[in-house]
Structure formats: structure tokens, C-alpha cells
Design a protein that fits this description.
The protein has 512 residues and is α+β, with helices and mostly antiparallel strands. The protein is built from 15 helices and nine strands. Strands 1-5-4-3-2-6-7-8 form an eight-stranded antiparallel β-barrel.
Amino acid sequence: MAQSKRETERKYAAPAADDLSWLPGLTRADPVVSLAEAGVHELDALYYDTADLRLTRTGATLRRRTGGTDAGWHLKLPLPGDSREEVHAPLTSGDVPAELRELALSRTRGAALRPVMRLRSTRTLRLLLDADGGTLAELSVDAVRADAMLDGGGHAGWTELEVELADGTDPALLDRVEKVLRKSGIDRAPGPSKVVRALSETTSLLADGPGARREPVPGSAGEHVLAYVARWAGALTDLDPAVRRDEPDAVHRMRTTARRLRGCLRTYRSVLDREVTDPLRRDLRWLAGELGAERDHEVLRERLVSGVRALPGELVLGPVAARLQVWDAAHRAQGRRQVVETLGSPRYLGLLEGLHALTTTPPLRPKAAGKPAKVLTRALMKEYGRLARRLDHALAMPAGPARDAAIHDARKAAKRVRYAAEAARPALGKPARRLGARVKAVQQVSGAQHDGVVTRDALRRIAISAHAAGEPGFTWGLLHGREEAAAGARERQLPDAWARARAAAAHKALHF
């Protein structure tokens, strides 16, 4: 089974391997006090990618490496800053392990993986130690030989310096080490990874191959909309491995990302051609819906568990905890199966392919070249108008299920306004930020009210099961009453939250 760790490192274009005059200066990088030699290793790595380098273009690498202390398969996924997540699997035959292939699927989009580069390195390793002899970082000097395995590829060689932090070391040490290295004339490596540098020096694919983005007019409405779409399409790709591995909150973040993209494509239809974006919107809606079962259950489970924990012990009658565990196990397993099947479906891969095409060859409409203040504001205020009609209608209704449903519809409209304001914020500035914040408050209040409705329905169904098993229903009824009271309190907050959002929408900077 694959294992994961976080690595934080920086690479430098080191001088010749036999020039080590700069080494003693590293003890000036507090808290480093000494260096220790850790041997020489011969590393042989075969890098895999698609024919058009989809992993490399998205900042990921996949290799099979022998030699050194961590021989095996390594899939490296980008993280913010100097860090990456490294997923390690044991050495196998030449076939990529199925688990790593799945974790890379959102980047390959189903294209075949093949060897693209062989890197052989002679690594001289040293440890940076603190006053107690503890390892702060590993410093390696790599003499690299690169051999391209693509048609027309060539060969290259260079010396590279790498500084990788040990677990628990303050990342600020990298800045202090870099300061010492720069004073010795050692600068950052020209590429983010060895394989990127090797591909750049031995092939022309990264410069001329597919994947070069068609840019809109600088400063235009289209540029702002596409920047937002590209940001969240990239987030969807990045979240895929976390969802597959069932990491905390990953499903929620992917679902929200899908909704952001769908909302943006709906709001800014005057910028991007609907013939291209409408099918993507339908697929994004499908994806969010398929993720919904697991995510909604996560929220509901936490709400129910917290509700039970908040009750005094004398009010918890019967096997309440056991009943919750049975209910949770059944629903969670079903939701997880649904998520796994979704991420392995042809429709999901088609969605990823469509988003990639949208960001690289955007179907721009004439208004995409227009001034963002005008184009984006009109689209944003049109979305706001839909929210206003829905929420005014909901607030005028008497209490009851019909009003609950109307508030939920208004909540969905509030999300679209919020996401539209996010996309417009770089162009419209503070007014868009203010409107987005006020509408978010409306969304949160109406969302809390809706969560109460859903929780009451779940409590009723659990109580029916408990009653059928001869268990007391008192605790479930008590929780139902508390949820009803909390939802009513939230509902009473809604008019004030809406009034503040109206004031933000009335700001003169959002009108022409």
C-alpha cells in the first residue's frame, strides 16, 4: 500500500561537484552548527508521463527509482510554497502501480503513461545538524545525467544542489540557507524539478507542445473570468487525490469547487460561449450531486453527534450512541461507494478534459474583450436580481414546508451571487468584496435554517427506527425540538442579513 509524506525542499544550480568551498559557510545558517557526511549514492530514476506531458505541465512527477535509501515508485504532487506531497509505493515491475495511476488520473485524464526520461545521479549527501546532533536538513550535491526517451530527444548533464528539510524543521531555515548560498554565488535551479529541466534541455515539448494557453485580451473581462475558471479548475484537479484517499474535508472542498465553477459559467455567459459551457455546467452539477451524499452525511453526522453530546446524561435515554453508529455506518458506506464510482467514471474524465480545453482554448464571445467594470458588473447584478426575487418571495410566505423550500432556493441563488462576486473582485475591488461578504452572511443564515430542516427529518426517521426496535424515543424528540427552535432563531435573523446585503448591492460603484 502506498504511503504519503510531505517534503519541503529547494534546488540550486550548484557549482562543479568538486568545488565545495561554500560548504563551511552553512554553519552560519542558525541553528545549523555542523555538517556530517552521509555517503555517496548512485540513483537511477525512470520518469513516466503522458505523450503530451500532462503530469509535468501540472507540476506533478511520477518516477520509478532504484538506489539510495528510498527506492521505489514516487508520485509527487504540488503543494503551496516549497512543499510537495510524495506518495511512495514499493518497487514493482515496469507497470505503474494501480494506486498511483488512480491518484494521477485527474492530471492524465485517462491518457496512457509511458517512460519519458531517465535520470541517473551520483548523489553526495550531507546532513545539517543542530547543537544536539539532530538532523535539520539533508544537503545533496547531484551530478545528473539525463537521457530523453521520447522521439527526437537528446541528452544533458548538470550539477544540482538540493536542500530538503527534516520532519519538524522550521521552514525559515530554507531562507537562511539560501542567504548563505547566494553570498557564495549559488542561485536557484532554473526549473522546479530535475525532470522539468531535463525535458527543457533535451526536447522542445514544454516550449512548443500542446497545452499552451490561448490568452484573452489583457485587462479584459475575459481575462478576469478565465483566471477564475483556471484557478478552480486547477483546484478540482489538485483535490482529486485527496478525495480518492478520503482525506478530511476533501469531498466538501471538491463539491464547493464544482459549484464555484458552475456558478461562474452560468453568470458570465456573455463572456464564454454557452454551446461549450452549458455541457460543462451540467457535468459540474452532476459531480456536485454525486459528491453530495457523502458530504451531506458528514455534516448531518457531526450535527447529530454534537447534539447528543450537548445533552445532560439524564436526558439521553436508551442506546442512543449505538443507534447513531448503526445509522452512520450504513449511510457513510453508501456515500463512499458513490464517490469512488463517480471519480472512476467516463463522465468525470470527460468533465476534466472539457475544463482543460476551456482554459487552454477558451470560447470567447465578443463581450470578453470588453471592459471588466461594465461587463462583469452587469452579469453580477443580474445574478443579484434573481436572488432578490427569490428571497423576497420566501420572506413573504407563511412559516411551513413551502417557505423552507423557498428559503433553500434563495440560498442557492445567494451562492451564485457570492461566487460571481469572487470572480469579479479583482476587477471591481471593494464593492464586489463587500457584496460577496454580505451575501455570504445571507447564505450562512439560510444554510443553517436549511440544515435544521434536514436534521429534523433525519431525527424523525431515526426515531421511527428506534421505536420499531422498542427503544425510547424521548431523546430523539428532544433533539427534534431543539433543532426546530434553532432553525426558527436563524430564520428570524434572515431579514436583517438580507437588508445588509441590499445595502451593499445598492452601492453606486456597482451600477452604471
